[in-house]
Fold these 4 entries.
Entry 1:
Amino acid sequence: MIRRSDEHHLELAAKEQRVLYTFNLADFYRLHTKWVAAGLVHAGLILAHQQRYSVSDQLKRLLRLAGNLSAEEMRGKVEFLSAWG
């Protein structure tokens, strides 16, 4: 998968109804906007700045997000890890 395009990653995550977590903020936010304009829906995106958070801080924030938003609430949404501190 490492050589696959960002679009392919999002398509696969959407097909498998998986939320995608990435440090590639700009490209995936752009893809989200493109999908919304095309009427496409993904299972959700979680975007974070690379090297801003320790692994433990990432996990704490991801767990807080997962404990507060259901899969249905994540559907078609973008969440920024920074909002879950």
Entry 2:
Amino acid sequence: MSRFVKACAAADIAPGTGKQVTVDGKEMALFNVDGTWFAIDNECPHRGGPLAEGELEGCLLTCPWHAWQFDLRTGESLTDDSKVSCYPVKVEGGDLLVEV
């Protein structure tokens, strides 16, 4: 059964940026796209690059290691047919909660 777990304070992630967090033992990348929140696996399926450190342009994320690109809304790669997992996020009392 899934549940929402606190990841961090919403104020910790400025618009247009991301942050690596560990939620319930799982490493994730959280992103703020103009007040809309996205959570995905932090590890790029190509070579394990840290996606939280990637470059964000709208909902398009570019891995910092080898420039693989992912759509934060779906987790789908624009580079090949791979995908990263996406997790629902909600804001509650100023905190970001991620469903695990």
Entry 3:
Amino acid sequence: MSFLRKISTRRLFALGAAVVAVMGGATALALAATGGGPKPPPAALPVAVHDALTAPQVQGVTAHIQFTNHLISGSTLQGSDPILSGASGRLWASSDGKLRLELQASGKEGATSDSQILVVGKRFQVYDSGSNTVYRGELPQGHGSDAKDAGQQGGEQPPSLAEVKKGLAKLAEHANPSGASPSDVAGRPAYTVKITPKQDGSLLGGAELAWDATHGTPLRAAVYATGDSSPVLELKATDISYGAVDSSVFDVTAPPGAKVTDISPPAKNGSDGGNGSDQAQVTGLDAVQRQVSFQLSAPANLAGRSRQDVRAIESGNSGGALITYGQGLTGIAVLEQPLDAKHSGASATDNGQQLQLPGVQVNGSKGQELDTPLGTVIRFERDGVEYTIAGSLPPATILSAAQAL
């Protein structure tokens, strides 16, 4: 399969909005419909999806893009940041597993800030001009050159129409996909599908995806909050062209004086026999309690949701725990880890200067609250332990969960 057709769907969408969220956001290449352009003929959703996955491989993509982010309110955001405030820029992608994404934002006083994402095979780097920092690391196993090579060698074959129908039927167990609506996206004939969750109660209203009807390349993605017809997140290109991209486009080096931070996960010690970390994962309340250096707070129920899972995680030089409550989009995640004194009370950004989060009291402990249209995060400290509670739920529900810990 083509890297641009399949692998880049996961990579562009994850890196656009949630490299974004290293980084975070987790999220997407979206192109705005310009109107007046060609539209493809009507097609059933399984047929449109199958045609996209079996379309001839394209050698490269070049596009002008516009990223919109309405997660953070203007009163909370200070300064200009391409990821937090939205930006315009360019994107290049090649069929051999390379991606470059540039974003430039303008602040309220006219100041500009740049972010740049580069992916070459398994390796990625993200440059933030605001902090003059380059973050480097590796994509999770299954992305990058390994997956690409498997496709080139014939190890990964396009799904049949029957397999596509089976996959959509499985999706329909948890969500409501619309049909494939013929549309005009950035002057290209495209199909658009909207997916809404079947489960009620969360702040996530749905997502929309469009792809080129001829080339099968992802063209549009957007995320919506419940009750809002305008997307909360949108990364769009105003135009797009196909063709080989010169390799020099991806020859990007860190600016002089930039701080370089390696965020690759630590190497495994091989105790699991090289089969990944699943076999060595410590789970269960008692087992995780023996692993961490502090007393876990993990009640059987939290904000009306029963405890589902307790897992040990790495937290600097000490162990932490991830505890989940409830299921699906209405679930709550609780992260507990030893407090790093160097970052005690820091704001919820990489450089500590971009977000001014409202304060919140949790049973006498000071904390911060990030309230967005798609979810809420509350962080507080108590007795040398840092607690982070998150969910796609209103602030009152997350605060109730925090107070019950």
Entry 4:
Amino acid sequence: MYKVIAKNTLYQTIAKIFTAGTGFLITILIAKSFGAAGFGEFVKITTFTAFFYLAIDLGLNAVFLQQEDSESKYKDLFYLRFLIAFLTFLITNFVAFVLPYDPILDIGFSEAVKFGIFIFSFSFFSQAIILSASALFQKRLSYYFYMLAIAIGSLVNLAAVYFSTSVLFSLTSTIFALVVGGAVAAFLSIIFLKKSILPVKIDFIFSKKILIKAMPISIMLIFNLVYFRADSFLLAFFKESKDVGIYGLSYKFFDFLIALPLFLSNSIYPLLLRNRKNFRKFNSLTKTYLLVFLCLGVLFIIPFWFVSPLFAIIKTEYLEAVLPFKILLLSLPVFFATSFLQWIFISLEKQKFLMYVYFASAVVNIVLNLIFIPKYSYLASAVITGISESIVFVVLLVSLFNLKIILEQEVQS
């Protein structure tokens, strides 16, 4: 079983290497072609849209995999997600339409940014397909095909963005290029899954059941995303596009690093589900992998700390991104650990508890950013990000310890 976990973690890591590698080059191409202000516009588009990506996720996969007949219910999950993607597309563009903009101070969301949001929101549909397919890839522990789909889609992304930035010199066409790459990955996911999605069918009983069960996870993810992305969103309202671009660059690279533990967690989650009623085995798994996650977080700090000044190679103005990136790096072990702790509580069906934890952390994060961003800009955002995640880590760790005591008493009795 450990070999299977290692193999599927490797496949996810390779997929991330492709997305991160091409994403790294895409970030450089966009940042270099359009400068800090133009890159700030790009960050506004992608960050705003990312808020609504969560509506397509909703934690449905975690609940879907808990069902014994999940394989036969795949089509129901697929079309539920596609319907949600359509509704999310409409809501996103309505909200974007009413967002304010001050052309004199270059604060807020310009018409060009709103049009970019409209184009990028078409990626909701490909995201719905990829997420649904990944549920069965995870169920079967066959991430090899997921890796292929994502890798090929990433390469298409890179080629399309290169053409856009070097020939068309248009941010709008660059956003469209990203949508094309996602569509390719989605199409390949359907092919590799070898699972029929016809005829079109929506099971409303199934949809209602899974949405209700996933609601605590959904709310948790919303609060989680709020305190992950609120800083960039608030920067857009308080600071000019250049500041948004500088922080956006540092967070792009940090975002890649904090995604790494998710792959290991995805491979371990089915194992946690199988052993959640075996206290000793479950306890051993949580201790071992929590230590692994913490150690990996520490190890990743060292090389990236020393290479961060290379931001200046993109453009000298991005040298300002080094300090916020280093501040974010210091919180990396905490992010790695909480990534695993979340799945422990989900496997024990403690989603409601996670919902309350992330609600509290989101409130703390927003309040602190509202207070300190106007004066300290992105440096405040970087510090507050680490503080918020540290609070989550302490609360989850203490709660897990108390929960283990209760479970151990139940086993002994």
